[in-house]
Amino acid sequence: MEWILPGQHYILAYAYAVFITYVCFEQIITLVHPFQIFAQSVFLAFGVVLSFVTWISELVLLLRLVAVFPIQLTGRKTLLAIMAFPVAVKLVRLACLVCYYVQFSEVAPPYGNNVLTIQDGPANSPFIKVNWTLEIFDNGCVLGSIIKLAFHNCSLSVVMYPLYFSGVYTPHI
User: Fold this and answer.
1) Distances from the Cα of 41 to the Cαs of 15, 105, 106, 141, 168, in angstroms?
2) Is residue 135 packed enough to be buried (19+ CB in 10 Å), middle (13-18) or exposed (0-12)?
3) Assuming Cys at both sites, which of 13, 74, 77, 158 could form a disulfide with 153, CB separation 3.0 to 4.6 Å?
4) Between 82 and 152, where is the model more confident?
């Protein structure tokens, strides 16, 4: 991917690690001082970052489908049939995450011990349960498509070999 500079894809991981460290310190302080007031926005931001980082990282499976079924060799109807379900499931999962965080921001107190609210929230939220179920179907569908192609063609190199020598696929090292 030419638009990603070397080392740029680590920025999100570093930011996420710093943020998790901060929230872990907040939770340790909550254990030591249970009645200390914390802002809801910190815990809400932690949950949003946690959920959306995993959602974005699962987009790699969609990129694998595009790599295995290139647009130049796969017809648009076939590509649409292959990609329609995973893309629709990802959009529904995104909507479930947004609905959960809207619901959480309305339920959680603006100031107070939000650790208990966060620990209780996902277990009782239908949005999170639907998201978990759809995540299983999403990953299974994409993985099933890749496995089906591998067993049908006996190798993924059958698809990638003509692309490499036609100049369409050029690996970046």
Assistant:
1) 17, 9, 12, 35, 47
2) middle
3) 158
4) 82
Which residue is it, tokens 């570093």? 14
Three-state DSSP at 74 gives coil
Write b or e for each residue in 18-40: b if 16 or more Cβ atoms lie within 10 A of its Cβ, otherwise e. ebeeebeebeeebeeeeeeebeb
- Residue-range domain boundaries for the chain: 8-166
* Distance separating alpha carbons of residues 56 and 93, to the nearest angstrom: 11
What proportion of the chain, given as a percentage, has pLDDT over 90? Answer: 0
From CA 45, how far away is CA 23, in angstroms rounded? 10
Helices and strands, counts by H and E, the chain: 7, 2
pLDDT in tens, 71-94: 788 888 888 888 888 888 888 888
